[in-house]
Write a structure and sequence with these properties.
single chain, 238 residues, alpha+beta, 2 domains, 6-stranded antiparallel sheet, 6 strands, globular
Length: 238
């Protein structure tokens, strides 16, 4: 039984996403196999009981903790105007334009903030995404803040995997450029009423921490190469 639980945590989310897709297609065709529905409910129950634990997320948290500790003193620290604690790592994670319809297109950007809680240990990860609709008769700017208050990981992977259902998402908006943001809605993963939306939020979080790890790994390699070149130049006495 223990081995089955480990197997679910290691492949659970990709398999669950595929199962949801297949099940939805079958429902649309009115060819629903009771065994498939039972398997879907079983996967959903396991995911909820485990707090949407995901072994890949834990591995990425571990890598980010190591990278943040290594890069903390080597990068110019960005000051964030939030009136509170300054993050140890802060950089842009997304930027571009998204088109929903001819009259609905957004300019967006996103940033990640990583706060250490000690060497090789993360206290909090925060994403901030802002998008603006520059067209149309009315101005609208939206902001979404996704916070993981406990991006933990265990040295005993895969036997101990962290829960992810305590992540919170807060939605703000403003309708005048000179006005401040107004908080409209706030919830956490476990309180989102629809199971597929809870899975989607966890998968979105995983997508962006993957991107953060990739960016920070490349930055670390660039810094190491630059330092090696500087030292080599310093040692050229003739």
């Amino acid at each position: 039984m223990q081995n089955k639980r480990k197997y679910f945590f290691q492949i659970g989310f990709p398999a669950l996403a595929l199962l949801l897709l297949i099940s939805g297609a079958l429902v649309a065709q009115e060819i629903v196999d009771p065994e498939i529905l039972a398997a879907q409910k079983d996967q959903q129950k396991k995911a909820e009981e485990a707090g949407y634990a995901d072994i890949e997320i834990d591995h990425i948290h571990k890598d980010l903790a190591t990278l943040t500790t290594a890069l903390k003193g080597r990068l110019k620290r960005a000051e964030v105007n939030n009136g509170g604690e300054q993050p140890d790592i802060y950089f842009q994670i997304a930027a571009g334009e998204s088109i929903k319809a001819i009259s609905e297109r957004y300019v967006y950007d996103g940033y990640i903030k990583i706060y250490l809680a000690g060497e090789n240990k993360i206290g909090k990860i925060e994403f901030q995404f802002t998008r603006t609709n520059p067209l149309g008769a009315t101005y609208k700017e939206e902001r979404r803040i996704l916070v993981n208050p406990s991006p933990n990981f265990s040295d005993n992977l895969p036997n101990q995997i962290d829960r992810n259902d305590d992540m919170t998402i807060t939605y703000f908006e403003k309708t005048k450029p000179e006005a401040g943001f107004e908080k409209i809605y706030e919830t956490n993963v476990k309180d989102i009423p629809f199971f597929d939306k809870r899975v989607r939020l966890v998968e979105t979080y995983k997508k962006y921490i993957r991107r953060a790890r990739y960016t920070m790994t490349n930055k670390s390699k660039d810094l190491n190469l630059s330092e090696r070149v500087k030292i080599q130049h310093m040692l050229e006495f003739e």
